[in-house]
Specification:
Elements: E1 4-7, H1 8-37, H2 46-70, E2 72-75, E3 91-96, E4 102-108, E5 119-121, H3 125-130, E6 138-143, E7 146-156
Parallel strand pairs: 1-2, 4-5
Antiparallel strand pairs: 3-4, 3-7, 6-7
Helix pairs in contact: 1-2
Length: about 160
Amino acid sequence: MKKFPLTIRGAEKMREEIRALKSEARPRVIQAIAEARGHGDLKENAEYHAAKEEQGFIEGRIRELEMQLSNAEVIDVARLAGNGKVLFGATVSLLDEADGKASRYQIVGEYEADMKQGLISITSPLARALIGKVEGDVASFTVPGGEKSMEIVRVEYL
């Protein structure tokens, strides 16, 4: 599998989720399975089947997160010297040329992207349009409603 970029913060969040799944969720579901077994016939035991299904989800999520971490290239954004250029990990302040609305995004790996948190995937149309540009440049990209242009107001590596 190809390596993909991940910020230190993104890697820490993945490790924390793995820890929580292994130390909290897994023991809880094992206990629920044991209790459901005590209720008798497993064929018609909805609690048992629900707990087994949850166990499958938890184990699958642990495997998925561990695989993602093993294939990640963890990058310390604070150590990057972008020299004013937008690169992976940059936090970019933008101004929409159409409506003057300001926004701010950090360019992160696709597994840690969360638009509500201002984290956009390196593979998103906006991030691809921003990469390599500097303050004062205009990035144009296509959205479902048509073409959009954003002026780069500030580039930071936090």
